[in-house]
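worker-3 :: picked Kinesin-like protein
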Amino acid sequence: MASKKKVHAFVRVKPTDDFAHEMIKYGNDNKSIDIHLKKDTRRGVVNNQQTDWSFKLDGVLHDASQDLVYETVAKDVVSQALDGYNGTIMCYGQTGAGKTYTMTGASENYKHRGILPRALQQVFRMIKERPTHAITVRVSYLEIYNESLFDLLSTLPYVGPSVTPMTIVENPQGIFIKGLSVHLTSQEEDAFSLLFEGETNRIIASHTLNKNSSRSHCIFTIYVEAHSRTLSDEKYITSKINLVDLAGSERLGKSGSEGHVLKEATYINKSLSFLEQAIIALGDQKRDHIPFRQCKLTHALKDSLGGNCNMVLITNIYGEAAQLEETLSSLRFASRMKLVTTEPAINEKYDAERMVKNLEKELSLLKQELALHNSLANRPLVTYDPMDEIQIAEINSQVRRYLEGTLDEIDIINLRQIQEVFNQFRVVLSQQEQEVESALRRKYTLIDKNDFATISAVHKAGLVDVDGHLVGESDGHGFGLGVIPFSAKPGKKSKAKKTFKELSVPLRKEGASSPVSGKDLDMISTSKTLLVLSVKDGDVKDMLSRERETSSIEPPTSSSPKEESRLARPGTPPSRPVAFEDFKNDRGSEINRIFKENKSILNERRRRASETIQHINTIKREIDVTKEALNFQKSLREKQGQYENKGLMIIDEEEFLLILKLKDLKKQYRSQYQDLRDLRAEIQYCQRLVDQCRQRLLMEFDIWYNESFVIPEDMQVALRLGSSIRPGMVPVNRIVSLGEDDQDRFSQIQQTVLPEAPESISFVNAKVKTAQKQNYLKTMMGLQQAHRK
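worker-3 :: C-alpha cells ->
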C-alpha cells in the first residue's frame, strides 16, 4: 500500500540590493518566513488591518546557488524516479521572480544551469551506475499558451506539425497528451539538444517587470523505463518526472501590459487562479469533487497534483518592499500546497513477452514433474501435448464406430482426450443434422409454419387435403409432408401443377431469404458467384490495361529554351526525396559511393562477428559437455578407488584425453573471443565512419538543395566568383551577419569551461549544435525573404 505524504514546499528569494530587512525575516531553523507590514495611518484610529504573517515551509533558499537549490529540492525526487516513483517539481511565483532561471537556468553559463539540465545529468549518471538494469529514457516538452496545447519539439524534421489539435486524454494508467511527441534519448547530449530545441520555441515577451517574460506554462517530462538484466521476472518499473515552469502571475497595474501581452496576461492569471482553486479543494479533506477540468493546466497536471507522485513546489518571491503584496499571495499559495497529500507508489508493469516465456518454462517443468510422477506410479506413458491432426482423426473414427456399434468402448488416457471425444461427438452430430436437412431439401420444399400467407396460397391452389394437411409423395413407408414434385405425374400437366408453377414465387423455403426451390437456389447462387467473379475479373483487366497505358506514356520532351531553363531551375523546388536521389547520382555520387563501401564493409564485419559468436557458443557448449564428462570420470574414479604413485594421482587414458580436449577447447575459446573483441572494435570504427559519411552526405545535400533551388540566381553569381565564402554560406553584406565562427566559439568554451567542469561536455556540445541550427535557420529565412523581394 502507498503511504501518504505531504507536498514539500520551498521558497526561493530573488537576490536584490534593496532587500526589505524590516518587513521580511527568516526563522532560525531556516524553515519559516515572517512578513511584517506597517499600519496604514490613513485609515484612522480604528484600524483592524492585519500586519503580521508567518509561514511554515520546508526550507527558505536565500542567496542560494543553483547547486544548493538542486541538492535541496530535486535530487531526492529524481533519485526515487529511477526506483519507480513518479515525481513533479513545480516553480510558482510572480512574473520576474526567477522561476525560469530556477527551472532552466542560464544556458550560456554551465555553472548557472537550472534544475532541468541537472535532472537530466543525474538520470544518465545513475543509469551508468546500474549496469544490472536496461533503462530507457524518453522526453517530451509541452507548452500551454492561451489555453491551447503546443508541442515545443514539433520543429524537429522527423516530427513535423500535427494536423489535429492536441487533446488531454484520461485512462486507467493516468493522464497523457494525445498528439504530443515523445523522443527516445540514449545519451545525455541528445537530451540536452531536445531541451535547447524546445527552449528556442518558447513564447516570451517584454514588460516592465521582466524583459524576457515567459508567456506560457511549460511541462518538460522525463519518462523512465527499467528492465532487469539479471532476473527473469516479467515485472518492470516505469516512472515519469514532470518539471513544470509556470508563467508568472501579473498585476497589470505594475507590469503595464497592453494589447496582445495583456491578453496573454489574462489567460495566465485565469489559469493560475484555477490552479489555486484545485489546490484548495485538494487540501480540504471533506471535498469530494476536485475541479481539475476548469483549465488545461490543472487537467494536464491531474495525476501530479495530489496523485501518485512525489510533489515539490518552489515558490519564487521578491525580497523588495514594493512587491510585498504579490509576495504574500505567493506564500499563501505555498502554505495551501503544503496541505495537499500525495500517495507515491512504485509503478510496476508486466512484460507480456517475458511473461509468456516464463509460463512456457513453468509449463515445461510441470510436464517433466508429471512424467516423473507417472513413472513412479507405474502408469503408462501419457503425453500432455496438444493433439495433432492424426490423433484427432483417430478419435473421430473411434466415435463413429462407437455410434455405429462396431466398437464397444473408447479407451480414455487423459483429460485432453476426454475433451476431444466430446468435441468429436458434437462434430458427428452436427454433420448428421446437416445430411438429414440436405436430404429433406432435395426431396421437399419446406414451408415455414408461421408464414400464413404462403400456407393460404397453397391452400387456394388445392395442394392440401380436406383436413388441411399438405399431400406428399409416397416413399414406401407412408406419406411425406411437402408439395407434390413434378415427377409424380410425368405424363400430364394438371391444373394443380400449373397453379403450383404460378404460385411458386410465394413459396418460401425455411431458413432461406429467396422464395425459390432448392435446385433454383443452387443455380442462382452459382450464377451470382459467376457474376461476381466476372465483374472482379473485368475490374482486374481494366486496371491492368490502365496500368499498361500509363506505363507506356512517356513524359513529353520539350526542345524550347524556356522549358529547358525551367528544368534547370524550376520555379517550384522539387520534393526533397526526389532531389536527394538526383543529388546521389550527380554531385554527391562520390560521397554516396564511399558511404556504400563503408556500409558494405560494416555489414561484412557484422557477419563475421555473428559467425564468430556462433562458433564461440559452439565451443562453449563443447566445453560444458567435456566438463560434465570429466566430472563423471572423476566421480567414477573416486568410487572405484584412487591410485597414487610417488605422490602423483594416476588417471586412466579416457580421463587424460578429456583433460587435453578441455585444455584445447579453452585455448580455442580464448582465441575466438580475442578475434571477437577485435571485430567489435572494427565494427565500432566502421560504424563511426558510416555515420560520418551519412552526416556529410546529408549536409552536402542541404547545401546543394539550397544553392540549386532556394538561393536567388544573382547570389549564385556572387558565390561562384572566387570569393572566400564556403559552400552553403551567403555574402555577409547581402543578407545577415553570421557572427563569429562556431568552431572558434566552441574552442573558447572548451578552454574556459571544461577544465573546471569536465562533465559539461554534453551540455556544451548540445548548446553549440542548437546555436548552429538557429544560425542556419536565420540565414535560410533571410534568403527566402530576399528571394521574395
